[in-house]
Task: inverse folding
């Protein structure tokens, strides 16, 4: 890339069970917010990118066609990006690639899920002829991986409970977050039902409806508004096969390689020291220490100590998910883009009550499937000296 | 394994989805239950059935407008009736331009099983179903207007 790229508009819907609106109207809430933030109209947009998890989750096939009008893409090319929960991160990067390649001046990236219209566990575990009907769900898949992390690291079991409390308290400062539990305590998490040992109910993400949209452009097309852009300092994705002999699901190579590539682009030598805030895809509490280690923000087996020492809580040295994160709202198709967008809001100084002071560089992170899809970007308040 | 045998198994997929239609389309469906037909204002004119977003501009469509449940056949094709079709004898599938709207509405037209009675430009009106529930089948079909 030779031109610096920037996020100049961000919109999101409230995350909740949204029975009162259609999918299109819910998507439009985020699209309208992003365009108003950027002070642009549909006529300024060259290309639209839609992020969406599998069609079975809420039952619309080819949603990029169904939502063309709601996304304002009359006469514009529309591309759908499709992975698992990481998809919003992949879509943001793909949108930035279109600008970097000179194929568009301004790209509108849109993401949503409306999970109240479908049955998530059924979609993940539908029976197939000649196959075992495991019905394990997402938590059933991740629980053994978490148990292995605890074995390797020797982390005490209260770490997971503490992460769950931190993220829910963060959500009380985010009016868009689905879960609002201002009185949550470690005892309450510890006493909540065990779903998939060692994951308890309050250590798990909800199933949410919600949408997010961002406008990405290059330096010469940044609109003149009162709100500064978030500059993209580095972005990358990596994928590995979901299941193969020898794969390390606790600390996937794809995640490590993805982060290393982004820090190289951003000129970051000491990620934990040079980053001010991170928004990570943490669907179960234990993934906070696991991803901190995976993306180079903590030494291997020691990520849990950052939780223990309150360094990742709001007000700590490296706040994780000040928005409340995935544990406080999970419209899967939008969840990854929300992490990327929240990182951008932080470095723009626009995160409202959950603004981290002096946030100059932030990570937005997304993962999906059996944690085989990884996407990450670093955004900053300053234009990068050398474009990523 | 038996020589030449091939395993097969039945596989039935069920899709347990629950749709939200929202206030605009919801009012249209609720209107059908009351024998009332609504369209929505858009750039090209009133569109029926209504849409939430204008296909010409992407803008939200405007207010709902009540329409007379009658129109003109724009084009049609003849169909042999099968079990489950809206008309129990042979009928036409037609694009009906509802009075006061832009575009057309796809539905069945019953002309008593006689294709010679079908013509472009003929006047038709809605035949309402007796037991209406608030979905598009509340319109049983269109029939020749007197």
Result:
């Amino acid at each position: 890339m030779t031109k610096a790229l920037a996020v100049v508009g961000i919109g999101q819907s409230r995350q909740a069970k949204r029975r009162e609106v259609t999918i299109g109207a819910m998507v439009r809430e985020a699209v309208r917010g992003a365009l108003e933030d950027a002070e642009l109209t549909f006529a300024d947009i060259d290309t639209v990118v839609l992020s969406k998890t599998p069609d079975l989750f809420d039952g619309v096939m080819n949603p990029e066609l169904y939502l063309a009008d709601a996304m304002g893409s009359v006469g514009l090319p529309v591309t759908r990006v499709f992975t698992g929960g990481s998809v919003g991160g992949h879509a943001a990067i793909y949108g930035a690639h279109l600008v970097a390649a000179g194929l568009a001046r301004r790209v509108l990236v849109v993401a949503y899920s409306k999970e109240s219209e479908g049955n998530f566990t059924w979609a993940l575990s539908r029976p197939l002829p000649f196959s075992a009907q495991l019905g394990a769900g997402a938590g059933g898949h991740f629980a053994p991986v978490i148990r292995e992390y605890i074995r390797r690291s020797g982390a005490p079991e209260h770490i997971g409970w503490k992460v769950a409390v931190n993220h829910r308290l963060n959500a009380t400062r985010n009016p868009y977050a689905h879960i609002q539990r201002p009185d949550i305590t470690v005892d309450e998490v510890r006493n909540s039902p065990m779903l998939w040992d060692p994951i308890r109910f309050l250590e798990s993400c909800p199933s949410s409806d919600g949408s997010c949209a961002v406008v990405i452009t290059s330096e010469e097309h940044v609109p003149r508004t009162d709100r500064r852009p978030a500059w993209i300092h580095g972005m990358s994705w990596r994928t590995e096969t979901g299941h193969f002999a020898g794969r390390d699901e606790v600390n996937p190579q794809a995640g490590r390689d993805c982060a290393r590539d982004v820090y190289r682009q951003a000129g970051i030598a000491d990620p934990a020291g040079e980053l001010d805030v991170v928004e990570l895809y943490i669907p179960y509490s234990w993934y906070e220490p696991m991803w901190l280690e995976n993306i180079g923000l903590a030494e291997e087996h020691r990520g849990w100590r950052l939780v223990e020492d309150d360094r990742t809580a709001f007000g700590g040295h490296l706040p994780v998910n000040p928005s409340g994160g995935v544990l406080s709202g999970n419209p899967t198709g939008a969840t990854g883009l929300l992490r990327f967008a929240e990182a951008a809001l932080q470095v723009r100084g626009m995160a409202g009550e959950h603004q981290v002071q002096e946030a100059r560089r932030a990570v937005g992170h997304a993962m999906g499937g059996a944690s085989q899809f990884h996407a990450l970007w670093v955004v900053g308040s300053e234009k990068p000296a050398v474009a990523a | 394994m038996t020589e030449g045998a091939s395993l097969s198994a039945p596989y039935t997929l069920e899709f347990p989805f629950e749709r939200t239609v929202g206030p605009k389309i919801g009012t249209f469906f609720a209107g059908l239950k009351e024998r009332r037909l609504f369209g929505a204002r858009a750039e090209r004119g009133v569109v029926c059935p209504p849409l939430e977003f204008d296909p010409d501009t992407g803008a939200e469509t405007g207010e709902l407008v009540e329409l007379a449940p009658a129109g003109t056949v724009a084009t049609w094709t003849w169909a042999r009736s099968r079990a489950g079709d809206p008309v129990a004898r042979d009928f036409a599938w037609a694009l009906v331009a509802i009075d006061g709207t832009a575009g057309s509405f796809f539905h069945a037209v019953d002309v008593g099983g006689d294709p010679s009675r079908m013509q472009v430009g003929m006047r038709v009106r809605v035949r309402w179903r007796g037991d209406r529930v608030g979905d598009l089948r509340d319109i049983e079909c269109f029939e020749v207007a007197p």
Remarks:
- Chain B has a mean pLDDT of 94.
- The first helix of chain B runs from residue 22 to 33.
